[in-house]
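Worked Example 4.2. Consider the chain below.
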Amino acid sequence: MNTLPYFATPQLHLLHRGKVRDSYRIDDSTRLIVVTDRLSAFDSVLETAILHKGAVLNGLANFWFEKTAHIIPNHVKAMLDANAMLVKEAQPIKVEMVVRNYLTGSMLRGYQQGQRTFSGVTVPDGLTKHQQFAAPIVTPTTKEESDREITPDNLVSEGWVGRERYGKMAEKALELFKVGSDLLASQGIILVDTKYEFGLLNGELILIDEIHTPDSSRFWSAADYAQNPESAEQMDKEYVRQWLIANKVDGKYPRALTPEVAQEATSRYLDIYQRIVGQPLATADETATG
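Applying the procedure from the previous section yields the following structure tokens:
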């Protein structure tokens, strides 16, 4: 079975080609989003595509959009294909609503260097690596060439979003995080942190982009965390990242993965999908039979 590293169609106007997703104009109210099998790590796209990765991301996003539609409307119109989704054309709000429940990632690095306030949220001294917060926190960033931490007050004063609308976004982000955390906990998975993006459709706030996928979220195995919190690893791309680090040459990461590493990455994405959804990815059957 072939991977989908690249998608192009002369019939449609390309709106945006991201690291993983390609967006095309259907009409003034609809766009096509194709989720490819490209894999990005350390701010670059690798030459090796990961079989089924795009279908996993697209399928999980659709699963979560359906599970959270009672909290906030979303942009989904229809799933056209395992890797393709039709969505409503919304006006994006250029803010990423990052929700965190554990001290890890970039926040941990800042904390270890003495930082205690993140996007206007102050956390106490004495926290340890991967420690859970008393309650989830919202640490927004701007959506720019280089995303930056920003306080809610500065989001308002710089004109990114109005104060009332930001309050609604923060409220909905925490509600979404609660639903995601509860469902994942029942499957032995910790939702460590994630990001949500919102847009406006006819003046109404809706959820756009993706939700609770391995690309937008950090997942840990609850069993691994219980055994040793500080050694808990991200369940998806961390394996690839560690391989890239271990195989650096002259300070540079490899541009491609070995077939064995790519296969293991595929297995990990498929495992996450099955654990969350409760059944195997339908198109993965073609791997066994093809």
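The chain has eight helices and 15 strands. The two ends are 6 Å apart (CA to CA). Compare this with Example 4.1 before moving on.
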